[in-house]
Design a protein that fits this description.
The complex is a heterodimer of chains A (120) and B (110).
Chain A: E1 3-7, E2 11-12, E3 18-25, E4 34-40, E5 47-53, E6 58-60, E7 68-73, E8 78-83, E9 92-99, E10 107-110, E11 114-118
Parallel strand pairs in A: 2-11
Antiparallel strand pairs in A: 1-3, 3-8, 4-5, 4-9, 5-6, 7-8, 9-10, 9-11
Chain B: E1 9-12, E2 18-23, E3 35-40, E4 47-50, E5 64-69, E6 72-77, E7 86-93, E8 99-101, E9 105-109
Parallel strand pairs in B: 1-9
Antiparallel strand pairs in B: 2-6, 3-4, 3-7, 5-6, 7-8, 7-9
Classes of the chains: A mainly beta (120), B mainly beta (110).
């Protein structure tokens, strides 16, 4: 059974960098899937942040692209998100997810989500 | 690309059918059969209910069905049950190789 688990600080100061990790179990991230991040501000809808392919290729939301970096750590079977220069609008529940296959951006497995609050 | 457009809320009585629409453009919904639907209960992660417009993952009830016409996709839930009460989000792959989500629809089972 594929399982994803997000981890990282729950509180980040404005202008700092938000860093999250998604640990994957039951499946190798070196297989041909995209591994993505989606966020949800409190009481609002879902927003795609981006995803990274097992080969290391990435696609990011254009509205966040200048601040986002995603990476893979195949030795630990996990992938990571860094979002720089955060402000209060970046406060959200952050989910990591796997795509069903290479095409179509279908997210079939999700982590439980982790709330990140941006505040001084 | 702007977010896909969904109604903010829909409601129905147990046993009835409801349909949630998801309107995009020719650059996303209208260009690919890559529309997905997710169900989200309060405090939980989204769950994939429909992919590729009308395909159901294993384990999802056949009361859930999807369709598409032009730039608008639809999710239909038949035989409404109390457990269907949740938020529903559509998503689509786009010509810019990005992913768009809809704003979400709150389903209330009366």
């Amino acid at each position: 059974q594929v399982q994803l688990q997000e981890s990282g600080p729950g509180l980040v100061k404005p202008s700092d960098t938000l860093s999250l990790t998604c640990a994957v179990s039951g499946y190798s991230i070196s297989s041909s899937h995209w591994w993505g991040w989606i966020r949800q501000p409190p009481g609002k809808g879902l927003e795609w942040i981006g995803y990274i392919y097992y080969s290391g290729s990435t696609y990011y939301n254009p509205s966040l692209k200048s601040r986002v970096t995603m990476s893979l750590d195949t030795s630990k079977n996990q992938f990571s998100l860094k979002l720089s220069s955060v402000t209060a609008v970046d406060t959200a529940v952050y989910y990591c997810a796997r795509t069903l296959r290479t095409t179509g951006a279908v997210f079939d497995y999700w982590g439980q989500g982790t709330l990140v609050t941006v505040s001084s | 690309h702007s977010a896909l457009t969904q109604p903010a809320s829909v409601s129905g009585s147990p046993g009835q059918s409801i349909t949630i629409s998801c309107t995009g453009t020719s650059s996303d919904v209208g260009n690919y059969n890559y529309v997905s639907w997710y169900q989200q209960h309060p405090g939980k992660a989204p769950k994939l209910m429909i992919y590729d417009v009308s395909n159901r993952p294993s384990g999802v009830s056949n009361r859930f069905s999807g369709s598409k016409s032009g730039n608008t996709a639809s999710l239909t839930i038949s035989g409404l049950q109390a457990e269907d009460e949740a938020d529903y989000y559509c998503s689509s792959y786009t010509t810019s190789t990005t992913v768009l989500f809809g704003g979400g629809t709150k389903l209330t089972v009366l």
